[in-house]
Amino acid sequence: MKHKGFVDLEFVKLDIEREKRKGLPEIIYAPGKTTGQLKSIIKEFKKYTDLIFVSRLAQPQFEILKKSYPKLKYFKVAQLAFLGKKIDGNYGNCLVITAGTSDIPVAEEAAIFLEILGNSVKRIYDVGVAGVHRIESFRNKIKKAKVLIVVAGMEAALLSIISGICPSPIIGVPTSVGYGSSFKGLSALLGMLNSCAPGSVCVNIDNGIGAGYFAHLINR
After folding, report:
1. Calpha distance 155→174 (Å, rounded)
2. What are the DSSP calls for 3-66, one per residue?
């Protein structure tokens, strides 16, 4: 912190040394930024890193950015874009699980982020507690995972069930999926935080990329 360590574009102060400190570059969060601002940020970051992520990027913005950066890749379900080359890693087995189909966009944000960083990722989708018997078919796959990400809305009880049968670290991602009393994910967040099964942690509501980041650190 003795020197500047960032680039000042007036509307943004780009942290150009995060990759040196953390091993991964700063992730560009798209909501609230204009397409022109995103173009400027990507242009500047290209001077300092070979891998650029843009999270929560709407498809219309991607279509415009693609004209300036033809190699920009986009994953529609995850609303995640990246520019650069996938890391040729050999990191351990990650398992991403969702309670319902509606949780998949957040889960895909985590899963794709992990895959780009060179992690081996498997997916099990729609095995929530409303049909808890479905989990039994995947018990061996769950137990073999090195790190798990459990994505769930509503009451988010799936995290406790998975944590009760799995010996590996588990990252819970509460989602904003649910009816009125779910309070846009607050019920799921509190449910995961109050889990009585040890061995799990919880990121913020809909924070798939945060869960993916943490899982990558565990694997690495």
Report:
1. 9
2. S--EEE-SS-EEETTHHHHHSSPPEEE-TT--HHHHHHHHHHHTTT-SEEEEES--HHHHHHHH
pTM of the predicted model, to two decimals?
0.91
Q: Which residues pair with 147 in a beta bridge?
A: 94
Residue closest to 41 by CA, chosen among 69, 19, 77, 2: 69
Q: Is 72 helix (H, G, I), strand (E, B) or coil?
A: coil
List the chain pLDDT tens, one digit each, 220 residues. 455 778 888 888 888 888 888 888 889 999 999 999 999 999 998 888 889 999 999 999 999 999 999 999 999 999 999 998 888 877 888 999 999 999 999 999 999 999 999 999 999 999 988 888 898 889 989 999 999 999 999 888 999 999 988 889 999 999 999 898 899 999 999 999 998 888 899 999 999 999 999 999 998 8
Q: Quickly tell me which residue has 């953390």 as its tokens.
A: 22
d(CA 39, CA 52): 12
By residue count, the chain amounts to: 220
- Residue 83, strand partner residues: 52
Which amino acid type is present at position 20? K
**Ordered domains of the chain (ranges, CATH):** 6-84 (no CATH), 91-219 (3.40.50.1970)
